[in-house]
Amino acid sequence: MNKKIKADQGGRYVSRLTRDTVALILAGGRGSRLYELTDWRAKPGVYFGGKLRIIDFPLSNCINSGVRRIGVATQYKAHSLIRHLVHGWTGFQSSDREFIEILPASQRTGDDWYLGTADAVFQNLDIIRTHSPRFVLILSGDHVYKMDYGNFLAFHAKKEADMTVSCMEVPIAEAAGQFGVMTVDESGRVIDFNEKPENPDPIPGRDGWCLASMGNYIFNTEFLYEQVIKDADTPGSDHDFGKNIIPSIIDQYQVFAYPFRDPETGEQAYWRDVGTLDAYWEANMELISVLPKLDLYDRDWPILTHQEQTPPAKFVFDNPDRRGEAIESMVSGGCIVSGARVKRSLIFTNCKLHSHSVIENSLILPECEIEDYCVVRNAIIDRGVRLPEGTEVGVNLDDDRARGFRVTDAGRTLVTPAMLNQKLHHTR
Q: Which CATH number among 3.90.550.10, 2.170.120.30, 3.50.50.60, 2.120.10.30 corresponds to the domain 2-286?
């Protein structure tokens, strides 16, 4: 009985923290290392996992955590992202206590677009102020993970921190030049922070590993106002949390690192930065394993999204040389696999795969059509591509390069409509 009471009190404590929080999701980045995949959409708007967008992960984490006052700051090529948010997320009950607002980059404080992550927050201070939160939760909109922000907030409050940075243990080779890296003392207080160093400092006693920032922060609200305004007035600043604000405050203020771990096992939790084509392909392909590290079937922590009304996937023909089938794959609604063979692949919504075609180890994004006798291996086929009859992708990488396809260092091929002179996106 006593344990139940204590647990209930703890739940109420966390719920108060989440109710006193406004989340700001920074979703304006291009993700240049995804190359042509982000020519017409922001990185948070990129398709993922058969029917989702990357932005669905931080949004779902907020809702599942009880953080229900959310702003999404957009900027680069925002139309696809905004359309997704309008269709899938703005039906959320809107009130002073619950809302999801789309915040277009509106050059609120001058003639410039967002100059950095801190500037994106600075240019939206007027909106944050209207809600009078106790805490501001700043989230990167372009990572794939499941995280209870309630635990994150409880850690911040317990430490009586001014700012808290969520962090992961990452191999140094992976972190070099890619992540902000920090050093902490015995209490978890951040004593050093370097943004994307080429030679990250290792964790003491763990050679080859470093402590990397996930790009998620909690600020006491007044402290946030003070720091971003100060940064805005600092000549020569990049107006970035990692480059400027965090290094400038760690000596004088209470900045703590929150280790993101699995609450059940205490081990490193699942988190993926899908910032390169290879990382994007790999994170998607992980989902088709028997027991994937990212469980999209977890009813206790659903990843919510816009549910397009589609008929069930259909598989037709059952002849020895013409069989519609999918093995070790995920096939979304609205798809017709008409005498094609799919193996170890993700087929996104409303795709048509025609007879005698073979799809292996590939991502086929929505609205694609693969004509007869095509072979697609180790590839990413962008939304709306129509592969003509007999097309081979990923079979001969030199041929792929010669046709203008993007081939990664790991040998995966990206094909977009523009590479096939198919004008899905055009202005003239």
A: 3.90.550.10
Q: How far is it, in rounded angstroms, from Cα 299 to Cα 310?
A: 21
Q: Are 225 and 125 in contact, with CB atoms under 8 Å apart?
A: yes
Three-class secondary structure of residue 154 per DSSP: helix
DSSP sequence for 286-323 = HTTSSS-SS-TT-TTS---------PPPEEE-EETTEE
**Rounded Cα gap, residues 246 and 233, in angstroms:** 16
Contacts of 289 (CB under 8 A, 6+ apart): none
Residue type, 42: A
CB-count burial class (<10 Å; 0-12, 13-18, 19+) for 81 = buried
Residue 381's nearest CA partner among 425, 413, 355, 350 is 413
d(CA 316, CA 423) in angstroms, rounded, equals 30
CB count within 10 Å of CB 202 equals 15
pTM for the predicted model, two decimal places = 0.94
Element containing residue 4 per DSSP (H, E): helix 2-19
CATH number of 314-420: 2.160.10.10
DSSP string, 320-339: TTEE-EEES-EE-TT-EEES
CA atoms of 407 and 278, how far apart (whole Å): 10
Return the domain boundaries, the chain. Answer: 2-286, 314-420
- Residue 231: count other Cβ atoms within 10 Å of its Cβ: 21
Query: What are the pLDDT digits (tens) for 118-137?
Result: 999 999 999 999 999 999 99
- Block residue for tokens 């590939």: 362
3-class DSSP assignment, residue 117: helix
Q: Is the dihedral of CA 402, 403, 404, 407 positive or negative?
A: negative
Residue 22: left (phi > 0), alpha (psi -120 to 50), or beta? Answer: beta
Note the pLDDT tens digit of each residue in 76-102: 999 999 999 999 997 766 677 899 999
